[in-house]
Amino acid sequence: MKSIHTLAAIAAGLSLTLTAAAQEQATTASSTGSHRPIPPSDQMFRKSIWRQVDLREKQNKPMFSEGKEISRIILEAVKRGELQAYKNDSLTSTFNPQEVAGNMSYADEKVELSADEKAAGFSEKDLGGGSDDGWGAPAPKKAAVKKVAKLDAAGKPMKDKKGRTIMVAAAAAPVVAPKSLANEYRYKDLYEMEIKEDMIFDKKRSRMYHDIKSIQLLVPSTLAANISGIEKPIGTFKYSDLVKVFRNNPQNAIWFNAENDAQHKNLADAFELWLFNSYITKVSNAGDSRLDDIYGGAQQGILAAQQTAADLIEYEYNLWSF
Question: What is the pTM of this model?
């Protein structure tokens, strides 16, 4: 009888240990942004892949419909405090909502003199209606100096020997430098995303999974207001957090079904069903280099992306040949 109790206690202990281990694995995996984490013990093959998504493409337009753009859904959730933004796909350091707003904004161009205007004798002080219009116009008169009573230590006006109140010039107000005007990009302008995923073969279920980790919004390099000429990250978001936002906003977070208004899908379902088009820009490597850097140019990078996609499909196919 005692041995039966002992075996039952051992079995219960093993069960608790396995449950705790499974929970620990799931929690550790979900911290990377995975919505459905796969325990490392079940992963026979894994490769990290970065994909670029152009929301202007025909296949991607359903998640970029008018007034319900995925960029709008994400950034408005950040402004409401519903979604946390991160600085990069390592998902360790964060942005606050004000920093995200700054990343998706651009400053008005500084007004400067042209070469002809400088040759004509104009100077920087003439910008914005300066004291001289460059053609000999008289400078405006100086404003009268405002005077106030001089106060003693008790705060009472001081007087001279004749009983008159001593007046002194009022302290000038501090000059505040004019702030550069910043404007937010339209949500329609933010049509580029980068998706980081782990391509994992689950040996327990005998199938390949595309485990999305994060989605990054970018300011496209082709926008006229983006004078830097390079893509600018706005923020990176955990995919697990995005799924919650999409599920909590079913009326707006939709994949637009152009054939049937009664069958719009939630954006979370659209990602699960892979209802979008993308191309590979990077595959995990020792140098953490993008394909166009490895192969020496944008055109070669596109060709390498197509070859990489074909190689991954062939690898998955070959898993079933043995």
Answer: 0.70
Measured CA to CA, the distance from residue 70 to residue 55 in angstroms comes to 9
CA distance 225 to 217: 17
Residue 209 CB coordination number (10 Å) = 17
Percent of the chain with pLDDT over 90: 56
∠ CA 146-147-148, rounded to 5°: 130
Give the pLDDT confidence score for residue 124 in this predicted structure: 62
d(CA 55, CA 276): 9
CB 193, CB 216: distance < 8 Å: yes
Of 172-181, 224-233, 282-291, the range with the lowest mean pLDDT is: 172-181
Measured CA to CA, the distance from residue 282 to residue 294 in angstroms comes to 10
Beta bridge partners of residue 43, listed in sequence order: 202
* 56, 70 Cβ separation under 8 angstroms: no
DSSP codes, 272-298: HTT-S--EEEEE--TT---HHHHHTSH
Token pair of 40, please?
A: 């490392």
Q: Does pLDDT of 289 surpass 70?
A: yes
Residue 174, pLDDT > 80, answer no
